Amino acid sequence: MEVIIQPDKHAAALLVARIIAKELRANPHLVLGLATGKTMERVYQQLVRMHREAGLDFSLCRTFNLDEYVGVPASDPNAYRFYMNRHLFRHVNVDPRNTHLPNGLASDLDEECRRYEASITRSGGIDLQLLGIGRAGHIGFNEPLSALSSRTRVKALTPTTLKQNAALFGGEDKMPRRAITMGVGTIIEARRCLLLATGESKADVIAQAVEGPITSMVTATALQLHPRCTAVVDEDAGSKLKEKEYYRWIFENEPEWESYR
Ligand code: F6R
Whose CA is nearest to atom 1 of ligand 1? Predict the structure, then answer.
């Protein structure tokens, strides 16, 4: 894994957006894995700005989101489909038919999970997967003890996740208890993974994810197995990393990062 430490949450999100934009320019048919959540809002703001100001073209790309709540219709402001429309899809020239999220209203949820996996495979697999990290260390909704080889399936949300997202639903009692999520195995099959974490509340979990032992208790640790994973953090989220100076040295010296410094 490579770790890039940026001065603040804005610089971190901008760097992630620039990496996505570079990949999209190099391959207009990019299959892009997307995430939702507070952290990603700044990334989408930057992508929308790049579309408007620099003509960043989404017309040929296909997108697959990590997850969707079970039982929440797309018209509900808490649905991840609603989130994606609000923060990205309706502001750029992506073809809505090329945007995919699991259907949390499907009558047969297991069949829906199989269908989602098959449609990722049919698209040729994910080129670049964007990831946030939950306070319990999840990627997607792969809560502690999720198998590191898991595929898209229905997961019960843990108390930590319910607490983390409760405010958005107006209370924990109003939150859905389950979500469909890509599995850890599905995620690490992406050709490139890009993790973004900002803020002090993510400091412990980032230290575990990057420098801790690989464990299904913190599913983000599976990213250590990935041949091409970049974690972008701000100073706050990176504050508990032991090898910060080493990560900074790599970013300053690795030719790949020259245009981003
Ligand atoms: C969302 C997702 C989650 C979030 C994580 C961080 O699609 O898969 O793993 O990325 O919960 O959420 P925020 O950014 O709200 O802290």
Answer: 36
